[in-house]
Design a protein that fits this description.
The protein has 415 residues and is of the alpha/beta class. The protein has 13 helices and 20 strands. The longest helix is centred in the C-terminal third of the chain and has 25 residues, at 291-315. The termini are far apart. Bound molecules: zinc ion. Zinc ion (ZN) binds at residues 10, 12-13, 15, 53, 55-56, 58.
Length: 415
């Protein structure tokens, strides 16, 4: 079995004119947290580079890792554990119900429904009928316990045939943060097209590449994300299936995402609002190679700065620990290539990750209640998008003056 394959064909338009625009070196798989028994084994590192398609402008990883390696761990992410995200999904359900005038018994399908958090809001607000589709085990068990119908499978064209046979007519098909994980996007979208009827609206929410490069969020580049989406390539992709992007929104909860509202129509049309955003992407240079020289410089500066900062603390015998162990932390640690053993422990709040080890330099992950025993002088915040709440929490429990280092978008310290 090959561990990974090189991607030679654009995942959206099939062109083989791909050019590398960013290279972060090699990195272990982000969700491959190690058990104690794994510590002796050699940890595989895989190339982590982004290619641009010169034909349609789509950005994508240069390799695809075999799924049996990529997803060998149990999927433990639960939508319903983040209060901020729950609130966001609740508001979205209310807004889209009102916008589309959804009523009792209208069917809503959520592809990548996870624990059913979103579908439950549709049930509560307008008594919609709901169907979730998701291949994960534990999260969908939770969804089922909430009386939500779930098809426990990957969404593919083949699965869409099963749904069609049941004569289900969804008024809304919604899918949040699943698109970048899909192996075959053409098959996936053919499936969506197959279950649409004339009144169906499709909503797709994805990480926005423009925001990644503008904000230096390079740690969102990891092997589980095959694609980094933007408006212009998707406009062309959806055109193939006679879908128009009728509206879009830049949304916040996952950093910076793009929410697209699609409708199947006979005539292809580029709406003014969409054109304006595509122009912003083009004018900034998102589809031009020289733009990425600037981005590479920014990354290098950021890497140097954090190394100098932490090495200085280390030289002065400060105890350095880190906080948070999201998938993206592995990209960050691999890219900045800290000197060995500079970080003593990584603190976590999610008990499923405690007593495991980060695959980069095998740093122990321990529960955040251990901060008192460690007595750290410096904490590097790897879940930097939650920096505010983490700092607040640590300060509340702990009197000592700790230096917090937030690595992104630009390394800075908070005392
Ligand atoms: Zn392409």
């Amino acid at each position: 079995m090959k561990q990974y394959i090189k991607i030679n064909e654009c995942r959206l338009c099939k062109s083989n004119n791909l050019k590398e625009i960013l290279n972060l070196g090699r990195s272990p798989i982000g969700n491959d947290l190690l058990k104690k028994n794994d510590l002796k084994r050699k940890i595989n590192k895989f190339p982590l580079a982004v290619n641009q398609c010169k034909k349609c402008g789509h950005h994508q990883l240069s390799v695809s890792i075999n799924n049996s390696i990529l997803y060998k761990k149990n999927y433990t992410y639960l939508t319903g554990t983040s209060e901020v995200f729950k609130k966001y999904l609740k508001n979205y359900s209310i807004q889209i119900c009102d916008k589309l005038n959804l009523n009792k018994n209208d069917l809503v399908i959520d592809i990548g429904c996870n624990d059913g958090t979103l579908l439950e809001y549709f049930k509560k607000y307008k008594k919609c009928k709901v169907l979730g589709i998701d291949p994960s085990k534990k999260p969908t068990e939770l969804a089922k316990s909430r009386q939500i119908n779930v098809l426990n499978d990957f969404f593919t064209f083949q699965l869409s045939m099963k749904i069609k046979k049941k004569k289900l007519f969804p008024k809304l098909i919604t899918s949040h943060n699943t698109f970048a994980h899909v192996e075959d996007l053409n098959d996936f979208f053919r499936g969506i097209d197959n279950i649409c009827y004339k009144n169906t609206t499709v909503v797709i929410e994805i990480g926005y590449w423009l925001k990644v490069v503008q904000n230096n969020w390079y740690d969102t580049i990891y092997h589980e994300h095959h694609d980094f989406h933007s408006l212009y390539p998707l406009l062309q992709f959806f055109k193939k299936y006679s879908f128009n992007i009728i509206d879009f929104k830049i949304t916040e909860p996952q950093g910076g995402s793009l929410m697209l509202i699609l409708k199947k129509m006979n005539n292809f049309k580029i709406y003014k609002k969409i054109k304006k955003q595509v122009d912003i992407e083009k004018n900034i240079g998102l589809y031009k190679i020289p733009f990425y020289k600037k981005i590479k410089n920014n990354l290098q500066k950021s890497k140097d700065k954090i190394n100098i900062l932490l090495n200085n603390y280390h030289k002065n015998n400060k105890i350095i620990c880190a906080y948070g162990s999201p998938t993206k932390s592995v990209t960050l640690l691999s890219y900045i290539k800290l000197n060995k053993n500079i970080i003593k422990n990584i603190y976590e709040d999610n008990i499923l990750k405690c007593k495991l080890y980060n695959p980069y330099m095998k740093i122990p992950i321990i529960h955040s209640s251990n901060i008192l025993n460690d007595n750290p002088d410096v904490i590097l915040i790897l879940s930097w998008n939650f920096a505010k709440s983490i700092i607040k929490k640590v300060k509340k429990k702990y009197d000592k003056k700790i230096i917090f280092v937030v690595p992104l978008p630009e390394p800075y310290i908070i005392q």
